[in-house]
Input
Amino acid sequence: MVRPPETDGRCPVCQALSPPLAFVKNGYPMHRCTSCELVFSSQPPGGDKLEALYSAEYFTAGGAGYPDYIADERTHRRQARTYLKRIAKLGISPGALLDVGCAAGFFLDEARRNGWRVQGCELSDYAHAHASQKLGLDVARAGFLDPTFAPRPQSFDVITLFNVLEHIPDPIGVADKLFTLLRPGGHLVVETWDPNSWFARLLGSRWPTYAPPTVLYCFTKRTLGRLFRPGRWMPIGYRASTKWISLDHGLSLLEYEADHSRAFRVLKPILSAVRRSFLGSLDVPYCLGDLAVASFRRESPEGFRVEWNGARVRSRPEAQPPGVRV
Ligand SMILES: [Zn+2]
Output
C-alpha cells in the first residue's frame, strides 16, 4: 500500500515552506506555490482511499470522471493515434513503451498496432480488466508507485502519462521512478492541465480541473521544469494541446461544474438533453488552451548536447535550460 507523502507544510514539488491557501474546492484546501507555481491539495489520499476513487463509477458516472469511458472507445483510439503521431514527430522509432495510468488500454493497443512493445500500469480494477482481459495487454493492476510494480530499470524507450501526473500523490516520487525506468536518452511525454492558461485564469476556482480529491496537482511549464529538473531531464517541447473527446464527455464536465456554480446551474437541463441525443456521441476537439503536452529527454550520466527551441545547449547538472528558467 502506498501512503501519501508527508508534506510537512511544504510544496510537494519545490519544497518551499508554507505555500499560501488559494481557495477551497469540494471542501479541500488548495494551495498555490509562489516559487514553482504548483497548485495543489495538501490532503492527498493514499492506499485504499486512493484506489476507491477510481472504481467503475469514475469511468461511468460522469462528475469529474467520465460518463462512459469504454463506450467512447472510438474517440479514445482517435486521440491515441494523435499521440502516436506526436511521438513520431520527436523522431523516435517504435521500441519499448510504458503508459502510466493506461486506463482501458486504447492507447497501448494502438501503439502495439504501430509496432511498439507495450506495457502499462493501471490502479483501477475496472479499467485494468478491460485492458488486460478484453485487449490482452501486458498491464499491471497497480498504481505507478506501488512497490509491486517494478519493471527492469532503464528498460523503456518512451514513457507516457496522459492526464495522469495530476492524479498521483508524491510527484517527486513519480519523477524519480520515471528516471529509473527510462533508458538514458529515452523520452518522457506528459499531458497535463495548465493552471496558467487563459481558460483556467478566467474561471478561477471554478475551473473544472480543480477537482480534488481526484485531481491533486496542477503543473505550469515552470512547475514541470522544477519537477523534471536539469541534470536529470532535458526539456524538448512544451505546447498547448488539442484533444479529441466525445461531446457527451465534454458536456458531462460542464454539468459537473454546474453542480458547484449557481451561474451554470440554469444550463444543466440543456446540457443533459444534448448529451442524451445523437449529438452526444460526436467527437469534438477540446481546444480551450488549458491542456498542455510537455516532453523531456532523460539525461545520460555524462550529459550531451541537445536542442531547446532551436538553441543548442550543453546539459550540466547545475545548468537551467532556456525556457524553464525559474
Ligand atoms: Zn513549489
